[in-house]
Amino acid sequence: xxxxxxxxxxxxxxxQDGHRVPLRANVGTGEDARRAAAAGAEGVGLLRTEFxxxxxxxxxxxxxxxxxxxxxxxxxxxxxxxxxxxxxxADKPLPFLTNADEPNPALGVRGYRTGRTHPGVxxxxxxxxxxxxxAHTAEIQVMAPMIATVDEARAFAxxxxxxxxxxxxxxxxxxxxALMSQELLGEVExxxxxxxxxxxxxxxADRLLGDLGELSDPWQPAVLKLIREAAMGGALNGASVGVCxxxxxxxxxxxxxxxxxxxxxxxxxRALPAVAAVLRTVDxxxxxxxxxxxxxxxxxxEAREGVRALLPVLDELG
Length: 318
Ligand code: PEP
Ligand code: MG
Prior knowledge:
Layout: H1 2-7, E1 23-27, H2 30-38, E2 44-48, H3 62-74, E3 80-84, H4 114-117, H5 119-134, E4 139-144, H6 150-161, E5 168-172, H7 175-179, H8 181-184, E6 190-193, H9 195-203, H10 221-237, E7 240-243, H11 251-259, E8 264-267, H12 272-279, H13 284-296, H14 300-310, H15 313-317
Parallel strand pairs: 1-2, 1-8, 2-3, 3-4, 4-5, 5-6, 6-7, 7-8
Helix pairs in contact: 2-3, 3-5, 11-12, 11-13, 13-14
Domain PEP-utilising enzyme C-terminal: 10-283
Subcellular location: Cytoplasm
Protein name: Phosphoenolpyruvate-protein phosphotransferase
């Protein structure tokens, strides 16, 4: 039975006490989205729209964008699809948008910040998202990457709402955003934590440098403290705070995240079966205990080991 559970996933994901955890997929293209739907994802928690810009020297036309987004929306009729506006720069440079000469690209004009130098690109993208949204039944939410301040969140929400889209959100992937989540969620309807960048910026360890492996670890207690802070900011506003970074694909860490108050998880589709299999064996009480254990551990290794000891099901799943 367990082996079967690991091969495939069919939703919804209900914990032992009936608590429901929406499991969504991270996708970049229409083809990804169709594969994610076939793998059982309930929706898209992260559409990395820069994928439809990546091999281009010029901004894609509105028609090209509408078609690309529409292909993804079509794969999830009636379901939630979270569209992230273009996240260029640093590890994803784009010739027409980012400056290759920046001394520290990860700290430079990337993500939402490219709207400072190229406001029209962001505006035209949001127009295209709104047009594609109007032609499909998927429930479209739009979020901005690399938000660092309340001012940015407010300006982004205004831009999204002014295009007739009702639900604006921000990624929490910069430590300042995690610390300010309560205030940010007074401006936008939801947040999603990007643990890849949140870990990079919290630990000051370039995510592209494999040599820094033990620093680039979302189990680092400092990262967990920021995630909990972000989740609490959501709870205080009655707003949902999900996770769409790689951390959501780690079954033990997924339990910790849910125990910290994270309301949905989005991951690579191949991670869905294992994450669901483990979440289905625990209740919120145990998830909170796992979260407390991880949160109070002094090191990443102790956090991992402590949680593993509370979840023997992990050994069964291999
Ligand atoms: C993240 O930073 O965790 C994230 C989900 O975004 P990306 O990996 O695309 O930067
Ligand atoms: Mg990121």
